Queue: 4 jobs
Job 1
Amino acid sequence: MKLWLNVAEGAEYAGVCRDLIYDACAGRRIHHIRVGGRRAIRLKREWIDEWLERHAVVTQDAPPPARAAAGTNVRAEVAS
């Protein structure tokens, strides 16, 4: 397992888009380093986990979204 992740790998690890990681780095909301001054951004998994914990939003107990049965067209059902 790699110690250092680039932005794309960090975003995949966190399950978010790359822009969100870039914004968090720019806003100094997530710990990161820049290799070569302002060049490549590198993150550690622990730093991403800490950021996710700090920004987690607890929701009320809502029922899970309905899942479509295999082979059904959800859009067609919604449109009718």
Job 2
Amino acid sequence: MYSYESILHPVPDCSTAPVSDFLDRYLPYLLRKADQTLSAPFYAVLARAGVARSEWRLLSVLEDLGDLRVADLAVAALSPQPTVTHALGRLENRGLVIKTVDGDDRRQRVVALTPAGSAL
């Protein structure tokens, strides 16, 4: 697995590898490659700040959409709910988000950014 820092450096010569044009035509691969190439410097900054990409995605969605129920946050962040729940625990422990009981459904939790989370 590549780290984002490794993307910033030249890729080893793979000219002896078998040639296939499948990946050159496979849109999901090309989009992921473009994302990693364009976002590598930003991801490196996040890593130095100790923020995982999954955490950053949640913070960004909350900043953009405001307070959300956990299930709605998972949908908006394009992440499975268990992944979101785990990341929210880390963010809450660091004081970046706060979870409160939903006034309409006490079984649900609403997630909001703290000032520290918004500042990040």
Job 3
Amino acid sequence: MSSLSSDNKSLNDSKHLNNIGITEVNIYESNTQPAAEKETNLVSYTNDLEGENITELDDAMRLADDAKQIKITPEQDRKLVWKIDLCMFPLMCLIYAVQFMDKVATGSAAIMGLRTDLKMHGNQYSWVGSAFYFGFLFMNLGPVQVLFQKSKYMSKMLAIFILIWGLLLCCHSAPYINYPGFIVLRVLLGCVESVVTPCFTIITAQYWKADEQFTRICIWFAMNGLGVIFLNAMAYGLYIHKDIYTITAWRVLFIIIGVITLFLGSLIYYWIPDNPSNARFLTKNEKLMVVQRIRSNQQGFGNHRIKIYQILEALRDPRTWLYFFIAVTSNIPNGGITNFFNILLHSDFGYSTKDSLLMGMPAGAVELAGCSLFGILAYYCDKKKIPIWRYRLTWAILTGTLSLVSSCMLAYANDSENAKLAGAYLWYITPVALICVYANISANSSGYTKKWTVSSIIQAGYAAANIAGPQCFIAKQAPSYDGAKTSMVVCYAIEVALLLILLFLNIRENRRRDKLQSKEGIAKSDNFEFADMTDFENPNFRYTL
């Protein structure tokens, strides 16, 4: 096998390749020519992926030889994808809807009496929104990666975290809870919920091909909108019947969400497999077909050994930091809006409590329909090979621009309440840019340790931004919160610029690799796709745009 190198930086780690049984034949020689004359060379490798070093490889390697004999017809492919979608997707979507319900539940609870009952004043409510993400941030500074990458039972651990999360939600309704206790519960809730998106990103990479992943991530992420609809419908029903309960309506709201979460966590434990090789809904032949399908991803099911060189590679990869800052700029506004949207409807737009809960439902519909639609359009354009629009990053840039427009409408359309309200609703398509980041982690961060590392860094940025977001809503600026709205405009302008840079970087690197491959040629060894190589190491890897 050969690999690409440039500017004195080989794309391969020879120590790693030797460890997994790929023997280096022709070492890359340091180029001492002037920078302008440097020519990228290739390295050739022979391969022996058998024997005692199998633990260095991807779990899919155990099925790779048998899978290579499989010939998949288009009809078989469609049936298999449909079966995976049917067996995996509904439960993933419901979990994602519920995890967003409890994020925005505090906003509904706030206008249902939470702030009064817990005697909040000043900026204390802002810290309710931020507290959740302190726990989220802590877990993504290392614990999530160590716990879940090293475990061979990822889905079982995920289910246990979801069950704990359900219990914590029920504890939110404790009759004697005070403000400090509520803050502690929000921090703990952030700890256990932090595992959902990284695990779902990994699961998506295990079952679907790279060109299918963006659409799937768009759809399960769009379930945030379904969560908003259900939450506001429940909150409205509870509020108008608040006099019939022995406890306050907002406490009943948290109990209901908690019980739903416990039920779904139990289903996850029973049904979602730890990887496709032990999926009870797949036959032996279908498991081999899954391996053969994802071969084109240049990655498999994962490896449970944490590899330091892949962590270091993730840290020096410019894409990691572009993902990080895209996550930050898209989630500073998110942290504020998810906690203050109903409050804005109530105080800035002047709706009553009941009307504010009802008016929150269309926002969920916009997110549900918008994110799903953009994902489906991106998939359709990719299949039809439509220039520019076949790139997922194009759709991210488009929605980033719409986010900028919506935040300008919300911030500056002071002469028209309808325009401000339209801007507030249009804002709910903003997750597409963040979805693109998750899809890039799934498809473009190869090497299991590197994938988990990049995911942890992005989730840390997501958490930090959501901590900062509610703090932009300063109590002294109520009810309009003009400073927070201006910060949204600035964030989305930066986000669009970063997405353009990411698109340019990936196009340039793919062209560079194509040029080198056509010039020098690359010899492939059997099952190299499952050698747990990173995108830097693998010369056959191309970045999905």
Job 4
Amino acid sequence: MTSETLPDTLAAMRPALHRYCARMMGSAFDGEDVVQDAYAKAGAALAAGAEVEEPQRWLFRIAHNAALDAIRKRRREAFDLLDEEVPGGAPAESRAAASAALSTFLAIPPGQRAVVVLADVLGHSGEEVAAILDTTLAAVKAALHRGRARLRDMAEAPVRLDPAERARLEDYAARFNAHDWDALRELLAEDVRLDLVARTRLAGAGNVGVYFTRYAENPVWRMEVGVAEGRPVVVARSTDGVARFVVLLDWQGGRIAGIRDFHYAGYVMEGLGLD
């Protein structure tokens, strides 16, 4: 793999990398941040002359290390794989891990979390997990057993939106659904920033205003207010009523200071747990 082939390789692997990073971080949104960080680190390594024989394993290791860095900064958690032999879990435990809400993974120490996600969510063998994490098969089995046990019988309390936040989002959704693009542009702060995830970034009201022009050219989405990972979001539904992507809005002084649109990152919806 070279710097020239990295974008195509990452595009193919991005959903799997995101599934891993989202569960390591306990958040689809934070997981995407880690994927972007891993992409930057991979590009820097290739530019510095790194030789890569197994791109998938190499990128997973970079993503794993990027996730650990983010975890240490956020929570200063210790990374500890217990080096002891224990039996593997039952298939039901594996299925439970694969379907668990993202935030529940935060109950597992990072080392166990990495093993559970790689094995039960992404389907890697014990040997492959050991190679990615640069540890022993015995340590992988121990971490898998303990991590699965920690995931059992966990539940989340429902989240309630702040009334003022709901009102802002409902106003945004109403303007969008009415195709009142100029009214939406009026909500933009002068220094607004747009992150059209996996596609482009823009800054400034003039540049970001074009974002609504693109939606005006293909007005097939209906927006509604929702909650994802405890955060207020705008949910985009297609004509069949299916939720396809979400948009995060940051507000300052009643104006939109930031837009994070996951239109081109549909993989984020997997495991998001919309309310």
